[in-house]
From TrEMBL:
Domain named Fe2OG dioxygenase: residues: 101-198
Pfam families cross-referenced by the UniProt entry: 2OG-FeII_Oxy_2
Natural source organism: Mucilaginibacter aquatilis
Protein's name in the database: Alpha-ketoglutarate-dependent dioxygenase AlkB
Cofactor(s) the protein needs: Fe(2+)
GO terms assigned for molecular function: catalytic activity, acting on DNA; demethylase activity; dioxygenase activity; hydrolase activity; metal ion binding; oxidoreductase activity, acting on paired donors, with incorporation or reduction of molecular oxygen
PANTHER family (UniProt xref): ALPHA-KETOGLUTARATE-DEPENDENT DIOXYGENASE ALKB HOMOLOG 3
Keywords: Dioxygenase, DNA damage, DNA repair, Iron, Magnesium, Metal-binding, Oxidoreductase
Example of a GO biological process term: DNA alkylation repair
Length: 200
């Protein structure tokens, strides 16, 4: 495991901080966690209400946390499951590496490039004013993009196997982010976003 302090560089030109750390997990460790999470996480298809209709996504999700937090987005209430050992271990490793603590984790499973995540900000009130989000990527490398809400400036990067992207400061106020779909991508990816739910 690498420490975070070397070569810290903000990818965003203004109005937020996004710091990318390659190789936080070495490939063998990252492979191990990918296999464990694929098997052990209680994956479910995500639901959202759009234009008054209930949509079921192909992407799978799961949400774990310290307590039975209620968290709402896309107009659906979700309840956190209690941590399992493998998640507790990786959470501790991420916390030590980035020097922050987290009380919940939202996981995403993208089976292939036909699944992605559209433009959004993680700005739900449960996350507090300037949320700190640590996003661990496992599996195939995928493109990730930011777009500024006013200037429309974009910043893109690859999120590689075993990397962590830290988003903090005013990022969620000013920037949207997305995981674009790509027909070229045939393999699966698991993403863990560690967050803090305030006053859950
Ligand atoms: O899969 C990713 O890297 C992005 C996930 C994301 O933005 C989210 O869960 O809010
Ligand atoms: Fe997000």
């Amino acid at each position: 495991m690498k420490l975070f302090n070397n070569n810290v560089q903000n990818l965003l030109p203004y109005d937020g901080e996004a710091i990318y750390h390659e190789g936080v997990l070495d490939p063998i460790e990252a492979d191990k966690y990918f296999d464990i999470f694929l098997k052990e996480i209680a994956w479910v298809n995500d639901e959202a209400i759009m234009f008054g209709r209930r949509i079921i996504t192909k992407r799978k999700v799961a949400w774990y946390g310290d307590a039975d937090y209620k968290y709402s987005y896309s107009r659906i209430d979700r309840h956190a499951l209690p941590w399992i050992d493998s998640l507790r271990m990786i959470k501790q490793q991420i916390e030590e590496t980035c020097g922050k603590t987290f009380n919940s984790c939202l996981l995403n499973l993208y089976h292939n490039g036909s699944e992605g995540m559209s433009w959004h900000s993680d700005d739900e009130k449960e996350l507090g004013n300037d949320p700190i989000i640590a996003s661990l990527s496992l599996g195939v490398n995928r493109k990730f993009s930011f777009k500024h809400k006013q200037t429309k400036a974009t910043v893109s990067l690859a999120l590689n196997h075993g990397s962590v992207l830290l988003m903090q400061g005013s990022t969620q106020h000013y920037w949207l982010h997305s995981l674009p779909k790509s027909t070229k991508i045939t393999g699966p990816r698991i993403n863990l976003t560690f967050r803090n739910i305030i006053g859950g």
